[in-house]
Design brief:
Length: 393
């Protein structure tokens, strides 16, 4: 039985500071849906979109007598989780800022389900049975910034999402297609989590992400066979035939700081694959089938700080790591790497590395670690940051 989120935690999550520039300080664990770990993000959208967040002086409810039967209402938080609800309840206070409907049996969002909730900031619909959403269901939610609708039965991205939306979590549904224009007008959006959907390369239409200025995107646990790139952005670089590596028809936003494509079916990283994503500082490609990373592919990522290539089929350390001056963490464990060269990680000679490594994982590779020269890790902060051994055939 899923754990009910305590009211005091829901309330405290709403007591955020005034709008500050968006800052991501670490990995976001999107698996912990019922913990709502991201409700305290400060947004970079500016003017009106943060007005849905109450300050401490405005938390006194003006409709205190209104609370749906069986729900818990405190301040401007309405918690109706784990009640076996078949539909969105009525009599929700118009000044509600957080509505928690997770872990119920809701199968449809109707046109007037959220009527009058113009102050709603966060809507949690995780772990229901939603398969149908009226095209005007989200119409009244003019200040909605957080929409968590993961673990449902959706086969498409909901239409007409609120233009104020900053964060969309829609993972673990049944979405196979991302059409052009589905994110149109979402100029404040900076985070989309859409992993756990049966998305293939062909599921992304040209222009699917047009207009978005995302900071974070996760398309993990899908059926992708290559890193997204549009044919218009190969800049004349050589590319393999479609039969070898099917091209995505949609470019991802070049504003991305984090891109997570782990647990897919990617087999190779080609020269042009990362061409557009020069602002990435964290790239997740673990748990794929990557055998080859073309020389020069990583040179397009000058600000990269973390690179996850664990649980693939690499036979050697990728070239170009010494040239990534800010790189601090490299996950290469559970591959087929048989040799580690003295210059695989650190700059040669007087080459300058602006940030030393604080994590290199090479365990579960067939590397005779006793043959690796100590100078190989001359740009590592601490020997404890290097993980070797534990290889089993």
């Amino acid at each position: 039985m899923p754990t009910m989120l305590p009211l005091w935690l829901l309330a405290s999550l709403l007591a955020v500071s005034q709008a500050l520039p968006f800052e991501q300080k670490g990995f976001w664990d999107f698996a912990l849906d019922d913990a709502l770990p991201m409700l305290n993000d400060e947004e970079a959208s500016g003017a009106e979109t943060t007005s849905g967040v109450p300050d401490l002086d405005s938390l006194t409810p003006t409709f205190s007598a209104m609370c749906p039967f069986g729900c818990h209402c405190h301040l401007r938080v309405v918690q109706c989780s784990d009640l076996g609800l078949k539909a969105v309840p009525k009599e929700i206070s118009p000044d509600t800022t957080l509505l928690d409907l997770q872990n119920n049996d809701i199968s449809e969002l109707r046109r007037d389900d959220f009527k009058g909730l113009q102050h709603l900031y966060a809507l949690v619909l995780v772990n229901n049975k939603i398969s149908k959403i009226h095209e005007k269901a989200f119409g009244p939610l003019r200040k909605l910034q957080k929409l968590y609708i993961s673990k449902n039965h959706l086969v498409e991205i909901p239409p007409n999402l609120p233009s104020s939306l900053v964060e969309l979590r829609i993972h673990d549904n049944r979405i196979r297609k991302v059409p052009k224009g589905v994110f149109s007008g979402l100029r404040h959006m900076n985070c989309i989590e859409m992993g756990g959907n049966p998305l293939e390369n062909s599921g992304f239409e040209p222009g699917a992400f047009d207009g978005l200025k995302l900071n974070y995107l996760r398309i993990s646990e899908a059926k992708l066979t290559g890193i997204p790139k549009g044919p218009a952005h190969t800049h004349g670089l050589p590319s393999c035939t479609p039969s070898e590596h099917p091209l995505f028809l949609a470019d991802l936003p070049e504003t991305l700081n984090e891109l997570h494509l782990d647990h897919n079916r990617i087999q190779a990283i080609e020269l042009e694959d990362l061409l557009r994503y020069s602002k990435l500082y964290r790239l997740g490609l673990g748990h794929n089938q990557i055998r080859m990373i073309e020389n020069g592919s990583l040179s397009f990522l000058p600000t990269l700080r973390e690179l996850h290539l664990d649980n693939n089929k690499l036979s050697k350390v990728p070239s170009g790591l010494p040239d990534l001056k800010l790189l601090q963490v490299v996950y290469l464990h559970t591959n087929n790497i048989t040799k580690v060269g003295v210059n695989d990680f650190c700059p040669v000679g007087f080459g300058v590395k602006r940030a030393y490594y604080n994590g290199i994982s090479l365990f579960n590779n067939p590397v005779p670690y006793w043959e690796v020269q100590p100078a190989t890790f001359r740009c590592v902060t601490d020997r404890l940051a290097i993980q070797f051994g534990n290889y089993k055939k």
